[in-house]
Amino acid sequence: MEENGNTVEAGGNTSVAAHDKCFYDIDSSRVTLKEYSWETPFFLLPLAMILKLFRVKIPSSTDDPPVRDLEPFEIQELPEPEMERLSVLKCELDALGFSDPVCHRIEDPLHAALTDWITLRHVSGKAFARIHYRSWNFSQKTKAKLHLFPVFYTEFEDGHFVCSSAGKPDTLEPPSWVMDRKINLPAARLWDLHQKSIEKEGGVIRLVNNPRDLRQAIRRQHEVVTGFHLKRGVFAEVSGNDKLRISQALASGDGMGMSIDDGAVISEIRRLEVSRSSWASLILVAAVTLALFISLGATQQPLRFLLLVVAVLFVHEMGHFIVMKIIGYRNMRMFFIPFLGAAVSGQNYNVAGWKQVVVSLAGPLPGIALGVAAGIAGTIADNALIKDFALMLLILNGFNLLPLMPLDGGRVMDLVLFCRHPVLNVFSRVLAALAFLGLGIAVGDKIIGAIGIFIAIGIPMTYKTSKITDRLRKQNLCTAVSGSASIPDELALKILGEVQSEFPKGLNIKSKAQMTVSIYGTLNARPPNWIASFIFVFILFSSFMVAVVSASLMYVAKNSDFGNFIDASVNRPEMAYKVGTAKVWRGPSCPAIQPPSNLTLAANYRDSVKAEENYSKLQRSIPAESSAVLFGQSVALNMPYSGEKDVSTWLNKIERDGASEAFAVRDGFDLQLSLSFLMPTLKSSEDLKNELTGYFAFCGHEKLIPPWSPSWDVEKKEIQDFRRARETYGRLSSFSNKLGSDAETENQELKRKTKDALRRGDSKEMEKIEKRQMEIRRENQKRHMENIRSSPEADLEVVNLYQKWLESTDSKDKSAELRKSLAACMGIGESSGGDKAGPATAANGGYASKEGLLFNVTCSSFNSTPEGLEAISKWLEKLKVRDVKYNIFRYRHYDDDDMEE
Predict the structure, then answer these.
(1) Helix (H, G, I), strand (E, B) or coil at 65
(2) How does 874-883 read in b/e, with b if 16+ C-beta sit within 10 Å?
């Protein structure tokens, strides 16, 4: 019943009618950075600065209730559970001389917050105390995060307050206030400090002698606080939609996210349905997130790479954006996610399943088509930037077609297959979680692994919502209403009932409303029929294969000459070597370092089984001072030399035992090992080529430590410096005549002029042209050297020595001296003794080349063949190479004396 306009509630609690309750909105963008710092972790403060700079509002709640007047929220006493929670603190205040409690319960449906107050006056009249309890339920599941603390207030006649609080700060207090915070201090000690504060403050205190004075003091204190927040814009008038939401929530009899009436949820659903975002907000979100994406990504990746990624992501997301706009999505936003990618979001809960499949395919398919076209154009024009862009398009869009949530391919499979049953839905999530976790571990990427963890965390929620959807589908409910963007009330309540039964612990208003509309959208997105589903799956996997094949071809075309790659693939050595299978045997009397005068015998067999059989057999017959090595289909022996007759005897024996080829290495002949294998990555292939180029350039004269030597420990700082020096030399010596666009244009014009000068027999013009061509080459070489000099991984000492070496062609002595200095930077090894100085594992010549991942290396004339082959075998293991092919043969070498003759 009603009495004098007031509603008398059950239990004797009295409150003013709901329509007298007036709320303010909280504009988080108007708070200071200092206030942000109280609630925000240090590492997120840069994000807070950006949010404030662009006036981005985030969900908020404050200890100062955002209401115009407190009187409508006054009740006789708090509900029993809350009184029990606050009873200990109230007893402490009673013991300190506080009495005449005034209770307030402020249920704020706009910010999903509940504030309970018990305010008491002191017997002296000099202060009033408040027990403050606030719960903010914006999280997915309601968790009563305790904000419980005492506060003491003293008001002076001039209108300012002295306040002592045991709570953490969350907003600034009015400038006229004197605030003393002692976080978590017991009430008795806080009261002692407050008395000292008011004594120190001086002035005339406005006494609170009775309950009427207490209510007036509460009103004045609240007016000062709200006036301060309104003036600085933190509190603001609520919008029309929010007013409707508040009135419906209050009319339901409960305004909070805890134990919310269905009417409050329906109100939130209607708010979601009518909300609209502007183009300005779309551009703002895209710009801010793009800036974050680039600024954070620049700490780990080169800017050129990041800009290529941004361009590819933009093309991909625009495909989604355009199709979603055509279908009728609203509140659309494109945003970038640092370290992960980008996404487009939008709202439309009345979209058929086949249309959602089209939306999912609209991102990767145009990207793949553009990637193929750009790849062809870039290859024809030989433009590195276009080829990089094409390869990135193919890789990222192809990866997105993998049938794993939350990728586009996973969404397609979910819409056509996995959504048909909760178990299938959960299976797809488990598969995706394991795949991302496995991939993250395999490549050592924590972010990829974290995606798998987040998917796994969401599996229980996915299973519950899938069960709800499955139950509702079996009821054959009428879902989509043609041309309507609203959920019928009856259906919304039906879905809401299922949500509340599946999540009995409770969700707040926003969570229930969002889950309801999400399930409604899923009900509308019925899977296509089986024929259409098959067509969509065929498009998905065929597009994926196009991306894989095209990316592979682009990878080869970008990183090697295609003709050279085919030629290198066709002309690989024939014998196979399985990494890790090499064996070495040393006789009981074999010296640690075998003399150079020893005889080296090598034999090749038809297969590795025959080679291993003869390797074991030879150990029983060769001299005790000998050594033997098994390498794939080959066996190499090193033994004391005892005459030509003995050499023939051993060769005949080896050939009788099944060798397809056997030869001795001596008297001007050396052994040569040619290897061909696949490197793990393009970067490792490029680095190895540069390192070996530096080694082979000097190994014939300066006896450098070979990269396959046991002493070449890449973990040692000294070896790392040697390696960097060799890689720098390799990059310097790999200078090509490839020109920039402007120089290339001029060079083409010079070629045209050359033909014309030759036709006319104009020798002076020819000299002039040749001089200019030489200048262009030197300018290009200078740019090449400066580019290397400016790179952080370059060895500047090697760059400087190399430049001096090039300029010293007129002085042999100076050139030789500079060559020795260069070799010293690259690591000279200790001598193995004899005529061949340098490590026993060293080669005396060789060369390296690569075509993409296909790597070829040839080593000539090891100081000790068995030790060299043994070291090579272990080196291949460290490199983690695949598909090793090789050849061992004898070749004729020419000494310097031979050349002079």
Answers:
(1) coil
(2) ebbeebebee
Mapped onto helix, strand or coil, the DSSP state of residue 166 is: coil
29 and 133 both lie in a single domain: yes
* 791: three-class secondary structure by DSSP: coil
The DSSP output letter for 795 is -
**Residue matched to tokens 């040692």:** 716
Examine residue 706 and state whether it is found in any structural domain, yes or no.
no
Whether residue 661 sits in one domain with residue 783: no
- What residue type is 413 in one-letter code? M
For the chain, the domain total comes to: 3
Q: Are 705 and 827 in contact (CB under 8 A)?
A: yes
Dihedral (C-alpha) 702, 706, 709, 715: value to the nearest 10 degrees? 110
Domain boundary pick from 228, 259, 290: 259
* Amino acid at position 235, single letter: F
- Averaging pLDDT over each range in 68-72, 351-355, 379-383, which range is the top one? 68-72
Q: What is the DSSP letter of 704?
A: B
Provide long-range contacts, Cβ within 8 A and 24+ apart, for 405-409. Answer: 405/429, 405/432, 405/455, 406/432, 406/451, 406/455, 408/360, 408/361, 408/363, 408/364, 409/360, 409/364, 409/540, 409/544
Does 614 map to a domain? Answer: yes
Which whole-number Å values give the CA distances from 153 to 159, 178, 193, in the listed order? Answer: 12, 10, 12
Question: HSE on the CB side for 160, CA within 13 Å?
Answer: 14
Q: For the residues 808-829, what does the mean pLDDT come to?
A: 74
The answer to the question of residue 515 being in a domain is: no
Q: 99-103, 142-146, 302-306, 363-367: which range is least confident on average? A: 142-146
Of the residues 671, 696, 717, which one is the last residue of a structural domain? 671
Judge whether residue 181 has pLDDT over 80.
yes
- The CATH number for 584's domain is 3.30.70
**Any domain includes 206:** yes
3-state DSSP assignment of residue 716: coil
Higher pLDDT, 419 or 848: 848
Q: What is the pLDDT of residues 17-47, one digit of tens each?
A: 444 789 998 888 888 888 878 876 766 667 7
Q: Which of 297-301, 536-540, 772-776, 788-792 has the highest mean pLDDT?
A: 536-540
Handedness of CA 320, 321, 322, 323 (dihedral sign): positive
β-pair partners for 603:
635, 662
Cα angle value 832/834/840 (rounded, 5°):
25
Backbone angles phi, psi at 160, to 5 degrees: -95, 160
3-state SS string for 172-226:
CCCCCCEEEECCCCCHHHHHHHHHHHHHHHCCCECCCCCHHHHHHHHHHHHHHHH
> Which of 720, 779, 724 is CA-nearest to residue 747?
779
Spatial distance between the Cα atoms of 274 and 262, rounded to a whole number of angstroms: 19
Domain co-membership, 580 together with 662: yes
Do 418 and 432 form a contact (C-beta atoms < 8 A)? no
- In the DSSP assignment, the letter for residue 858 is E
- 114 in Cβ contact with 69 (< 8 Å): no
User: Predicted confidence band at 897 (pLDDT cuts at 50, 70, 90)?
Assistant: very low
Q: Is the pLDDT of residue 583 over 70?
A: yes
Q: Classify the phi-psi angles of 669: left when phi > 0, otherwise alpha if psi is within -120 to 50, otherwise beta.
A: beta
The residue type found at 270 is R
Instruction: Say whether both 55 and 180 belong to one domain.
Output: yes
CA distance 48 to 46: 5
Give the integer Cα–Cα distance in Å for 685 and 677: 10
Backbone torsion region of residue 663, taken as left when φ is above 0, otherwise alpha when ψ lies between -120 and 50, otherwise beta: beta
- Provide the Cα torsion 620, 621, 627, 631; round to 10°: -70
Residues of the domain holding 769 = 736-818
Of 128, 132, 126, the C-alpha closest to 166 is 132
782 and 659 share a domain? no
Pick from 724, 688, 723, 731: which is nearest to 857 by CA? 688
57 and 152 inside one domain: yes
Neighbours of 88 (CB within 10 A): 11
Q: What percentage of the chain carries pLDDT values higher than 90?
A: 19
